[in-house]
Structure to design on (416 residues):
């Protein structure tokens, strides 16, 4: 999928929402990252068992309370497959389409998912699950995908046929490498604007008399993440998909979403997070590019996080969490952080710093981190269990990045 925003990539603004922007490394304040291998009671984490049973749950709870918010259960989720298998792309792939119903009332809150699998299936295949900014019919070049609805920039729901295509995702490239592809439109789960709660899944779960969730309850990112877990609920029932080898992929705010999903739902075997930036893989304490204060501003993206996130806008150092801890929650599963060397707004160096700081957790669990603390040049991928890749260019994913994604997936899911 092409999602490239030159205006942001070559950002020359000095402030956003009246809040200054720092693009000068010499002005990054002094900061200290907490040691994620120290329990809250001060004891060291020296064994995988202690990480899994004590420290990881502590960190997960902190991110639930202080950044993304707690999500409800999925007891009422159901599925309807309305296309079980159609040959497409010169008969190299099978297309499957289904609808996920998020509540008992199947007339309202629902989302369509399209899945492509290689036709030459001898055993369950690994799959890339992409959460997209556009409806399925605008995300993939396939005229027979069900036409849905979408939310425009004005917060109105319109037919998808009237929407904008960001660029078709190259499904065939993945299929030819033995990797399935599935996609879901994030707006079907929760519209991406402050009033979206009225139309999305969060509104359904509001407590009686409440117009907005409690400060420790879910923001929109957690809602999108919740929807991805619903997709996994279905994938576990699809005998042609290896549900233990599902890689999540998302860009920008959806990069944050897939990181949080991989952290809270360990059924996902891999995450590929593109330019996730502040609130994702970039260190908040660096105060470089977009900051917590920019994000939680009332005119911007406060609704994407739990209400508690607003406590840390003036001073990220007071927060008990930072991005390296979020990255650590993926361990020991493979994680690839993809970014761009001119995407200063998303702080590509800050993402690298977080990955370096997360390496001790990967090593504790017998996996390989980046193996270096030297920030690599653009187009120099580091592909271990923990990976980092910075293309030459700006915000998002470029078509040329797909080869790196495929190499990473094959390395961990196929060529073993």
């Amino acid at each position: 999928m092409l999602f490239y925003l030159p205006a942001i990539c070559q950002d020359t603004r000095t402030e956003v929402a009246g809040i200054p922007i720092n693009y000068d490394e010499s002005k990054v304040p002094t900061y200290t990252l907490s040691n994620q291998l120290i329990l809250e009671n001060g004891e060291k984490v020296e064994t995988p068992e202690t990480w899994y049973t004590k420290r990881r749950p502590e960190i997960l709870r902190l991110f639930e309370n202080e950044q993304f918010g707690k999500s409800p259960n999925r007891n009422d989720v159901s599925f309807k497959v309305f296309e079980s298998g159609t040959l497409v792309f010169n008969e190299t792939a099978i297309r499957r389409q289904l609808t996920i119903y998020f509540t008992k009332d199947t007339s309202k809150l629902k989302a369509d998912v399209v899945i492509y699998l290689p036709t030459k299936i001898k055993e369950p295949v690994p799959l890339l699950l992409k959460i997209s900014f556009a409806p399925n019919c605008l995300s993939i070049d396939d005229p027979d995908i069900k036409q849905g609805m979408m939310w425009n920039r004005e917060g109105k729901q319109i037919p998808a046929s009237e929407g904008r295509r960001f660029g078709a995702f190259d499904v065939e490239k993945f299929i030819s490498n033995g990797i399935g592809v599935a996609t879901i439109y994030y707006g079907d789960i929760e519209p991406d604007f402050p009033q979206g709660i009225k139309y999305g899944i969060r509104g359904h779960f509001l407590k009686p008399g409440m117009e907005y969730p409690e400060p420790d309850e879910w923001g929109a990112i957690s809602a999108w993440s919740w929807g991805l877990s619903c997709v996994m609920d279905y994938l576990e029932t699809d005998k042609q998909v290896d549900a233990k080898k599902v890689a999540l992929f998302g860009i920008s705010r959806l990069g944050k979403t897939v990181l949080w999903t991989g952290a809270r739902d360990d059924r996902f075997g891999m995450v590929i997070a593109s330019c996730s930036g502040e609130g994702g893989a970039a260190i908040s304490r660096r105060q470089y590019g977009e900051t917590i204060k920019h994000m939680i501003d009332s005119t911007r993206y406060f609704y994407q996080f739990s209400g508690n996130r607003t406590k840390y806008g003036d001073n990220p150092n007071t927060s008990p969490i930072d991005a390296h801890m979020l990255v650590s929650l993926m361990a020991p599963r493979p994680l690839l952080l993809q970014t761009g060397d001119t995407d200063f707004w998303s702080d590509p160096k800050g993402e690298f710093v977080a990955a370096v700081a997360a390496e001790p957790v990967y090593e504790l669990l017998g996996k390989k981190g980046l193996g270096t603390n030297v920030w690599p040049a653009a187009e120099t991928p580091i592909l271990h269990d923990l990976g980092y890749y910075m293309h030459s260019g700006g915000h998002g994913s470029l078509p040329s990045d797909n080869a790196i994604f495929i190499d990473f997936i094959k390395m961990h899911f196929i060529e073993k």
